[in-house]
């Protein structure tokens, strides 16, 4: 294994690839993250709606309460993440 220090005893910095257009990379990343989180939010909403409909039809009151508690926890988390990502995407500098 090679020594990571140079001649003066300082640790050498790793060589990182140079991005040609870093702003475009960040724009594409924030856009993709915002879309991904919106899809997760919509998917989880419709999944919970389908499960609740199923449990109501078959009168599964105990499981209905469990899904309700899970949704009370999950909705604020995913909506907060989605709101932050979408807000950042629309308000970032140099758009």
Describe it.
- The chain has helices at residues 22-57, 61-91.
- With 95 residues, the chain is mostly helical.
- It has a domain at 45-95.
- Helix 1 (22-57) runs antiparallel to helix 2.
- 2% of the residues are buried.
> Which range does the strand content fall in?
under 5%
Helix content: over 70%
Output the helix-strand order.
Answer: HH
Count of helical regions? 2
Shape: elongated
Kindly report how far apart the N and C termini lie.
45 Å
Features:
2 helices, elongated, 0% strand
Short description:
With 95 residues, this protein is mainly α. The chain has 2 helices and no strands.
Topology:
Layout: H1 22-57, H2 61-91
Helix pairs in contact: 1-2
């Amino acid at each position: 294994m090679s020594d990571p220090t140079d001649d003066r005893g300082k640790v050498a910095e790793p060589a990182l690839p140079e991005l040609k257009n870093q702003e475009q990379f960040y724009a594409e990343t924030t856009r993709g993250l915002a879309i991904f989180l919106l899809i997760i939010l919509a998917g989880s909403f419709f999944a919970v709606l389908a499960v609740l409909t199923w449990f109501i039809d078959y009168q599964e009151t105990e499981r209905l309460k469990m899904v309700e508690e899970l949704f009370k926890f999950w909705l604020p988390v995913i909506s907060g993440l989605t709101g932050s990502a979408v807000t950042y995407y629309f308000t970032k500098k140099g758009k």
